[in-house]
Design brief:
Length: 216
Amino acid sequence: MTGDVAHTDVGAYALGLLDGPQRRAFDAHLTACPPCREELAALRGIAAALQGLGPPPAPGRARHAAPRRGRGRVLLGAAAGVALLATALATGAALGDAPPDTGTAALFREARTVAATDPASGVAGAVAVRGRAWGSRVGLRLTRATGPVDCELVAIDRVGRAHAVAGWSVPAAGYGRPGSPRPLLLEGGTALDPGRIARFEIRRSDDGRPLLTLPA
């Protein structure tokens, strides 16, 4: 942490809402905070798309127009903009026809990827893995999955222990199927570094039954 800079400022930074001193402080914070740099990369694509939705006025213009009341409006606008950005990320809201999770899509383009298909169910998946100082960043792409069912992705280490990576719910329409053609695309992480992962498993959350096994 640098001075009064908080990790939660990454949303305001991505939207260009931080004043000069705050922005310089967060620039310094980014050099020493890999998680914030990764989150910023994921946020920037959505922040650019939100510009067309009527962003709050820039801090400089608001101060020129109304030095006292303008400051309050800028803070409210910043809060609204960050909330909108956070909602887009949390809900996976589609902006046009483009997939909003540009950070995970980029991970699949740049990181080592493995894929597998279950011969019995036809469920197909791929994981992308990139080592980080804190462990491994893991992306998942899932298709041919039917629901409703709650699932989880776990990483199995070299001695057979399971480590949670991510969890999600498959709706009745499923993912990557007729009538619901888009795949599930999400991201999680594990404290294991890539060299300690033997394989990945997609499991049912209710009984732990494996639905798909992927090599590491």
